Amino acid sequence: IPAWSQEVLASALPELPWDRRARYEETFGLRGADSHYIASAMDRGQFFDKVIHCLEEDTQKVQLAANYLVSDLAGIFAKTGTEQFDSLSPIAYAQLITMVATGMLSSRGAKNILTEMTLNGGEPEAIARRLNLIQISDSAELMPHVTAVLESETSAVEEWRAGKAASLQYLIGKAVQHTKGAGNPEKIKELLLTSLKQY
After folding, report:
1. In the 8-state DSSP scheme, what is residue 104?
2. Helix (H, G, I), strand (E, B) or coil at 10
3. What's the pLDDT score for residue 86?
């Protein structure tokens, strides 16, 4: 076969699984097991490539998208007994990943929404609002809850001052409860530490 014919033939063929796997690992730093799983089925690879495009090839978000696909989405498909990527919008999936990456959703909230999206469709933000899963990360909105907990949990504050590290986790838990589960734990931890140092 002439060289030019080989080039035309190669360009007409779909990307081979090992080439796709290598691209995921070299371009986005995916773990070998994750890239192998995604690239080993054409539907998975095509879906994931659409998600990558929607995420504008942001490496951190692509890695997060891979984690959710390999663990949570695979788990949902295993329970339903079928792997139907055409029932899930890559755009909606990418939006969900962005909401997690920006702190709008907790990991638990994202898993609940992903299940709903996969089984029934829908937009992640609309589902999150309907299920009251939007996470509060705004300092001004969280600070009254942090202050209320510090004022009511004086013994835990004293224990933290005395060097009991576990007291901080207790206070974080109480502050998250105070927000009815909507507070971003990492942001609450940051605000608590700042406040505790000022007490």
Report:
1. S
2. helix
3. 84
CA gap 38, 55 in Å, rounded: 17
Mean pLDDT value across the chain: 90
Exposure string of 161-179, with b = 16+ CB inside 10 Å and e = fewer, is: eeeeeebbebbbebbbebb
58-74 core/surface letters (b: 16 or more CB in 10 A; e: else): beebbbbbbbbbbebbe
Question: CA separation (Å) from 64 to 33, 45, 122, 148, 172?
Answer: 14, 15, 21, 34, 25
> What's the token pair of residue 96?
């969900």
Rounded to the nearest angstrom, the gap between the alpha carbon of residue 81 and the centroid of all alpha carbons in its chain is 24
3-class SS of residue 134: coil
* Half-sphere exposure (Cβ direction) of 159: Cα atoms closer than 13 Å: 13
pLDDT at 187: 93
**Run of H or E including 37:** helix 32-39
Cα gap 174→149, rounded to integer Å: 7
Q: Are 105 and 64 in contact (CB under 8 A)?
A: no
pLDDT tens sequence across 45-99: 999 999 999 999 999 999 999 999 999 999 999 998 888 888 899 999 999 999 9
Q: In which element (H, E) is residue 162 found?
A: none
Residues whose CB falls within 8 Å of the CB of residue 122, separated by 6 or more in sequence, listed in order: 92, 116
Please give the Cα distance from 16 to 4 (Å, whole number): 20
